[in-house]
Amino acid sequence: MDPLPQFWRTARAGMVTAWGWSTQSTEEALAVANERLANSLKAIRAGLPRDKRGSYGWAPPREETLRELRDDDGTLTAIVSRNRYGADVIGTDRLLIADVDVPRDRPVARSLFRLFGGKKGKSEDDGPKARALRLIQDFATTHPSLGVRAYETFAGFRVIVTGSGLEPRSAEAVALFEQLGTDQIYVHLCRKYNTCRARLTPKPWRCGLSAPTWGWPPTSDDERQQMSQWLSEYSAATEQYATCRLAGTFGPPAAPAEAQLIDLHDRATRTADAHLPLA
To answer: Are residues 102 and 206 in the same domain?
Structure first.
């Protein structure tokens, strides 16, 4: 996978602004910004909608890289970055990660108890999270060569699939996503960047904190100060929350390289802290 650009510049003409990026220099980032601005102005004059403006409409995530993980040979395998609303996320092309949203339901713990051997009760076994978890279990049964880890999240489930060897943008990976009922916007982003992403830390508004008003990179000392203050408040606000909890594991164990990423994910999301509310 490619590293995230660390150099960003803007080019402006009237009310139109274009960001440019580079992994090499601010000068290259400015050149990209000017090119994208020219393309944007040309498309606007032609009356094209935003999603038809070609290269102007595409950009890599404008996020601060917090950590990079590499193989022994130096190959980049994962990036931990801070997303637009301040949460830490991991991006990788070495695992398939599915984001499965379901309508809000009671905590899955009771449904898990009933699903895996407890006394059945229709009101809980037929809940949306219980049905989603059965779908994940069926998926694992249908693909016995794959490792499947199901995590309960605030809005549904996260599924980590190991042992596939598939690129996230591949048709085969997309087919697996569809079998799991993965959110379609998420699938689109996986294909767009050839990367699976998973949020590691809570969403701020679920912890009583507003989303940040600054963006990356900060453009002034005032923004840098706002960023530092917000991150301090965010760290304190998220202390009593987890991002997900393990709901079930199926299939063969992960290979060592995959297990390393899973361990990072589980520690960062506080998966083992089952007593904490999800956010």
So the answer is: yes
pLDDT digits (tens, 9 = 90+) for 23-37: 999 999 999 999 999
**Residue 275 domain-assigned?**
no
What is the pLDDT confidence band of residue 101, given thresholds at 50, 70 and 90? confident
Task: Determine which of 58-62, 93-97, 207-211 has the lowest per-residue pLDDT on average.
Answer: 58-62
Task: State how far the Cα of 9 lies from the Cα of 193, in Å rounded to an integer.
Answer: 21
Q: Quick one: average pLDDT of 257-262? A: 96
Q: For residues 2 and 112, what is the distance between their CA atoms, to the nearest angstrom?
A: 39
- Over residues 109-135, the mean pLDDT reads 61
Q: Are residues 68 and 203 in the same domain?
A: yes
How far apart are alpha carbons 134 and 112 in whole angstroms? 10
Indicate if 80 and 26 belong to the same structural domain: no
197 and 221: one domain?
yes
Query: What is the β-pairing status of strands 88-92 and 244-250?
Result: unpaired
47 exposed, middle or buried (CB, 10 Å; 0-12, 13-18, 19+)?
exposed
Buried b or exposed e, range 246-258, using 16+ CB within 10 angstroms? ebbebbeebeeeb
